[in-house]
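Morning. Coffee machine broken again, so started the prediction first thing and wrote up yesterday's gels while waiting. Chain of 304 residues, entered below exactly as on the submission form.
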Amino acid sequence: MCRILSYLGSPVLLDHLLYAPDSSLLNQTTAAQMLSMLNLAGFGMAAWDPSSHEPHTPYRYRTTQVAVFDRNLKELASKLKVGALLSHIRGVPMTSTVQVNDQNVHPFRFDGVPLAMAHNGDLAGFRDMRFDLVPHVRPEFARAISGSTDSEWIYALVASALPDAYVINSPEAILDAIRDALTTIRKVRERHGITRSSSANLIFCDGTNLVAVRYTFDFGRFDVSQLQGSADFLSMWYTFGRDYGLHDEEWKLIGGAAQANSIVVASEPLTRDFATWIEVPEYSALVARNDGSRRIAEIHALSV
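Came back before lunch.
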């Protein structure tokens, strides 16, 4: 399993999300609070800098190295301010059958498509399923798939279901595309008789919208071994407010919902104090949208 972090709001220093908090994303490489495994199979991010050239196009950084040793990333994080971020550290089973390469590092974003995606979870029986997914993927996106992960196929399904994948879509359109993709996966699982519990915690961001999903197929059913995420739901949390930074010796957003202009969504809270964090309910989607000068967070049930 993996760890994801996404941010949308007023520009903040990348270091304050990836490194500074006591349970920052990079610290979760080896010391995640809500995951009993290491995340050593790569780091990736898409970062939107509103002051940069072509601000709607994110800066992308991916490496198969263990990111806590990456001096280049540390230097970059100390200089870059982001108005939106989708970042991911990849955790995989400790076996030689797993492919650790650049193509499998999250987040995924096809050329010309604003929407990026990162996944925490695992689709059981994916090798048997993937060819049945092809008819539901637009040909140009099927050709763009370069890795071997189930995650990239989920992304391709969602991108294919968007009304126009090459523009920034509304939160409603993104959520509808996610529902369509999950429905397709469920039908293919049923066709192949796949019933093992499979987590699909997903975060999508395009620099303007953020949609996060906490979802599991056939929760609680496992066969050969009980994997984390089959007998307990993989975690996802969020916090929103304004002025993200170090307040009262704690990294957090302040001001509450009434003054919120920023949101952080993560596999687990970035701080050991959970007081300002809210857990995303199981089988639901969190949608962050603008309401005038204020950003609001909505929870939508997923019944696919």
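The radius of gyration is 18 Å. Going to sketch it on the whiteboard this afternoon.
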